[in-house]
Design brief:
alpha/beta; 29% helix; 25% strand; 9 helices; 11 strands; four-stranded mixed sheet; single chain; five-stranded parallel sheet; 204 residues
């Protein structure tokens, strides 16, 4: 299910049947490298960076070398564990990673475990970076995951200079929970736009 590969910005544990990020890291040694131009342009050494939706750390690791520190959020339990492993093996010490969802309000969520093994044993592959939170939200079973707001979680004194959000259609909710940070720091914000009305598959 998981294997190690060497890439441009370090060594990474990846998902074997992941058809996008992991596959690109394994085949080409990089993922969406053009985005690093944006990060290199706007992130300064004294900046605190907020990254919502860190996945396995393909951007978290190189961004950590640009900034003073990074607050990293990834709610998928297995993906979060791989992220932390990648931070450790690359000697990253200025990233604070949290297995939290981020939104416009604080609440406790129950999230379903994703059966990555079933994807690994099939030929279809999967996109572990494209899973929407509402696809894995459960009523009461699964694992507990606290949804936080950035305003309530990030230290008030943090010099937030850059916010990166890749939250699968929750980008607006993330920003609604970060109004104070945005007004105080006027950070550069880099957001994914993936709004759609298509029906999403269920991951169980």
């Amino acid at each position: 299910m998981i294997k190690k590969t060497n890439a441009r910005h370090g060594d990474f544990y990846i998902f074997e049947k992941d058809i996008y990020i992991s596959r690109c890291l394994d085949l080409y040694g990089e993922w969406s490298e053009a985005e690093m131009i944006v990060y290199n342009t706007f992130i300064k050494k004294d900046h605190v960076v907020i990254e919502v939706g860190s996945h396995i750390g393909s951007f978290t690791v190189p961004i950590s070398k640009l900034a003073q520190s990074v607050f990293s959020f990834e709610p998928q339990r297995t993906v979060s564990q791989v992220l932390n492993t990648n931070l450790i093996i690359n000697g990253v010490r200025n990233v604070y990673s949290y297995m939290n969802a981020v939104g416009k309000e604080e609440k406790l969520l129950w999230l379903k475990e994703i059966d990555y093994e079933s994807f690994t044993s099939s030929d279809q592959g999967f996109n572990s970076g494209g899973i929407h939170l509402n696809q894995i939200t459960a009523e009461s079973n699964g694992y507990p995951c606290k949804q936080i707001t950035l305003d309530s979680f990030i230290p008030k004194e943090a010099n937030v200079g850059f916010i990166k959000v890749d939250a699968e259609e929750m980008e607006i909710d993330v920003l609604k929970g970060a109004v104070d940070i945005i007004n105080k720091n006027k950070p550069v914000m880099y957001l994914e736009s993936c709004m759609s009305n298509t029906e999403l598959p269920e991951y169980v």
